[in-house]
Design a protein that fits this description.
221 residues, NADH Oxidase, four-stranded antiparallel beta sheet
Length: 221
């Protein structure tokens, strides 16, 4: 499964089976998380076999069940933390999909369990990503039209269109897709709309855009 196929197949999953992921799959995932930390300067942590974070009222309110593994999205405090977490977290999410795992970005409906992961004095927990073998593969969401989230100063190049199409496959808070891409000359820009976790969403869609467009490093993340 290549990256674009992983984007098409990956959907948010809130219900998980008892099946543990371990051995080669867990080792590969941990190595990938470690590499993303090295590339990003973040402190993302895989938290395996820890069911308490999703055993409270908020998790049940959010319709989560069977979650016992997650990734704590931790990093240095700063204006770009949420966007950086979105970009590299989605990179991990899509790699997990390629490994046969399911995921869900979680902003509020979980409990912070003391000792489950580390947050340094100059760091902050941004959100978590539930991960494991889903009871289902989730379902697709409705997407906005390409023209609703992008603009160019001339004819739209195919690579730019491919990037926007990939961005529209990305998960966003409440599936609101509050983002915009613009092409001026050969310069691509992206901005987030207003709303909860919109900066995380921006990081997520930037990663999707780069992958779809086949152009890395467009946004300097």
């Amino acid at each position: 499964m290549d990256l674009l196929e992983a984007m098409r197949q990956r959907h948010s999953v809130r219900s998980y089976t008892d099946r543990s992921f371990e051995g080669a799959v867990r080792e590969k995932l941990q190595q990938f998380v470690d590499q993303c930390n090295a590339d990003s300067g973040l402190h993302m942590q895989l938290v395996p076999e820890e069911p308490k974070a999703f055993d409270g009222f908020m998790a049940h309110y959010g319709k989560f069940s069977g979650v016992k593994n997650y990734i704590a999205m931790v990093g240095p405090k700063g204006a770009d933390l949420e966007e950086r977490c979105g970009y590299y977290g989605e990179k991990i999410v899509l790699y997990a999909q390629q490994l046969g795992l399911n995921t869900c970005w979680v902003g509020l409906t979980y409990s912070k369990i003391k000792g489950a992961f580390q947050v340094g004095a100059a760091e902050k927990l941004c959100c978590v990503i539930a991960i494991g073998y889903g009871s289902t593969q989730g379902s697709s969401h409705k997407s906005k039209a390409i023209e609703a989230v992008s603009k160019t100063d001339g004819a739209m190049p195919e690579w730019f269109r491919n990037g926007v199409e990939a961005a529209l496959l990305a998960p966003t808070a409440m599936n609101q897709q509050k983002f915009d891409f613009a092409l001026t000359g050969d310069q691509v820009s992206a901005k987030a709309g207003m709303g909860f976790y919109s900066k995380v969403d921006l990081g997520i869609v930037k990663y999707h855009f780069e992958a779809g467009a086949g152009k890395t490093g467009l946004f300097g993340i």
